[in-house]
């Protein structure tokens, strides 16, 4: 069973891994044996790197601002220079801007779509090209794994989140499309759709009246914890245990969507 979920010696490229659920998933991949390449806007935050290295993993940081058009190509250029085969891509970078639909300006729309959808597509496409050229990896039993991070907004429209909901809906459909094209070629593409989690970014929401109403609606009766509640799903999708799972959008939301 341990070998079924092993990522020993496999390299994972991770965006959005410096904090929150991205960090939680990155560290669980490291605990399963993966070496990490972290995409960050700068090298000042070394928390994830330090914690993963303490687990005995090799960790590199590549610098890119995914909010800028075509920075995804710079990511892959830097990865190629490292001389390693990326077998896992975890597309976790994301942002949101809250506006009324009638006040959602083009600049704000473009900014969110660039980070949450366009850069994810570009990285998945470029990493996928490389994976398709690899031999099957003996640890994960395929050529590669791509894990996109959607949201409960992949299923729901939300409020004040026109760009975010559109991007996350797009991530779900992008996942299915790539899975359709690549599953038979041993590159498996899936999506995790998180619900509400305890992170630095949600701390103020948690304490608000809106946060209390959210808590009441979650069947599990609590918000998620970034590592233990979602990291296992990432390990599952990255490992050979999920090699017959393709195009799935898996909610990890404490039952929010089922309510």
TrEMBL record:
Domain of life: Eukaryota
UniProt KW keywords: NADP, Oxidoreductase
Molecular function per GO: oxidoreductase activity, acting on the CH-OH group of donors, NAD or NADP as acceptor
Annotated family: Belongs to the short-chain dehydrogenases/reductases (SDR) family.
Protein's UniProt keywords contain Cell wall biogenesis/degradation: no
PROSITE patterns reported in the protein's UniProt record: ADH_SHORT
Pfam families xrefs: adh_short_C2 (PF13561)
Name the UniProt record assigns to this protein: 2-deoxy-D-gluconate 3-dehydrogenase
Residue stretches in coiled coil: none
């Amino acid at each position: 069973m341990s070998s079924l979920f092993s990522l020993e010696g496999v390299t994972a490229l991770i965006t959005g891994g410096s904090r929150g659920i991205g960090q939680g998933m990155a560290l669980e991949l490291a605990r399963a044996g993966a070496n990490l390449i972290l995409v960050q806007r700068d090298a000042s935050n070394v928390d994830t790197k330090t914690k993963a290295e303490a687990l005995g993993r090799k960790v590199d940081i590549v610098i890119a601002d995914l909010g800028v058009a075509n920075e995804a190509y710079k990511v892959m250029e830097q990865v190629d220079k490292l001389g390693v085969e990326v077998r896992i891509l975890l597309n976790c970078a994301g942002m949101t801007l809250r506006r009324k639909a009638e006040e959602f300006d083009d600049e704000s729309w473009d900014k969110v779509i660039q980070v949450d959808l366009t850069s994810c597509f570009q990285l998945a496409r470029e990493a996928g090209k490389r994976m398709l050229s690899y031999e099957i990896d003996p640890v994960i039993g395929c050529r590669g794994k791509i894990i996109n991070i959607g949201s409960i907004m992949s299923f729901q429209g939300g409020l004040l989140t026109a760009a975010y909901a559109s991007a996350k809906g797009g991530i779900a459909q992008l996942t299915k499309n790539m899975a359709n094209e690549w599953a038979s070629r041993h590159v498996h593409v899936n999506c995790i759709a998180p619900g509400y989690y305890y992170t630095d970014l949600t701390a103020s929401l948690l304490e608000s009246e809106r946060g209390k109403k959210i808590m009441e609606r979650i069947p599990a009766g609590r918000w998620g914890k970034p590592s233990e509640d979602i990291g296992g799903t990432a390990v599952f999708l990255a490992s050979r245990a999920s090699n017959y799972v393709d195009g799935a959008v898996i909610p990890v939301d404490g039952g929010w969507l089922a309510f």
